């Protein structure tokens, strides 16, 4: 954010220079009456153009919010999972669908087998909830982004589970694969369209677990990114809203200055015309 502060200062100084240049007194002695009568109109256009152009430039440099979901990393001693949380799964309505993507791999030095299973979360799911999960798994390359799904040509398999099939004590096996590979699981939940009454006050939670290399780790669609805070000694950036406030106040000040100068110039117009 430091570079934005420098940018704000540069824009403010540059805009101030433009305003001073625009309203610096000119020698009007050599100009005829017609030119002098038209000058207030030209000045008005000029005074409004400078702050408006500045406002457009400042707006273009305003920091924007990052869109999209951020992945969550679940790390065991050897097993690794990366999940792309699904906010849509938390607010599903009858007839809607939502997907959740998870990659699983191992960093163990020795080869072995990893087993993936799906189950209900700690809170028991409502067995009457008409929610169906289509679970697709496929092998992927390590560098393939989570949001790209299963690549073309990669062998994949899909299984369907109902809410009643999943509970906290029964694990439903999805796939077992070599620890030297990376497996992607795409879980798509679909809520039956004619289920308004059944959905009322009902809920379901699911977990995807990975077992292998002597350990078990798991993740759910509700997991949130763990974003580490920047150490204080290294955090030299301004607060996110600080620069925006400085830029906004600068723009307001310059617009006010421009309008005030414009009104002052117009108040002198009748005297100049009579002369």
From TrEMBL:
Domain of life per record: Bacteria
Region (Disordered): 212-238
Listed Polar residues bias regions: 212-229
Protein name listed in UniProt: LPXTG cell wall anchor domain-containing protein
Species name: Glutamicibacter arilaitensis
